């Protein structure tokens, strides 16, 4: 059975599937999206470990898995901050100046219509 595993990480049977997944999904994503996928995967696996410990009667709050989940959560928040900064609206100063200029009300002189009629 030891001959079936590659470096002891996972069985040989799923090596091709994992390689296909990596080439189809991860290589097409930008680095930020890759980080999101990695973080969600790590968080999911550690959450499953948390659940396993709880079902075995071990207090997961006293296990190192708790620190790992907190560490992953910190990185997830960092990625969220970066994503929010990218989505933030950027100010087009020229458009804003034009908008403000056109939005300001200008009072016309009382006799502007009389002046216009006299010029005709």
TrEMBL record:
Query: Sorted alphabetically, which keywords does the UniProt record give?
Result: Cytoplasm, DNA-binding, Nucleus, RNA-binding, rRNA processing
The annotated subunit structure for this chain is:
Monomer and homodimer.
The organism encoding this protein is Jaculus jaculus (Lesser Egyptian jerboa)
Family per similarity comment = Belongs to the C1D family.
Q: A single GO BP annotation from the record?
A: regulation of gene expression
Gene Ontology annotations for the cellular component aspect, listed alphabetically: cytoplasm; exosome (RNase complex); nucleolus
Q: Quick one: where is this thing mainly located?
A: cytoplasm
State the protein's name: Nuclear nucleic acid-binding protein C1D
GO MF term set: DNA binding; RNA binding
Q: Where in the cell is it found?
A: Cytoplasm; Nucleus, Nucleolus
Top-level division of the source organism's lineage: Eukaryota
UniProt key word RNA-binding: yes
The record's annotation in InterPro entries points to: Exosome-assoc_fac/DNA_repair, Sas10/Utp3/C1D
What job does this protein perform?
Answer: Plays a role in the recruitment of the exosome to pre-rRNA to mediate the 3'-5' end processing of the 5.8S rRNA.
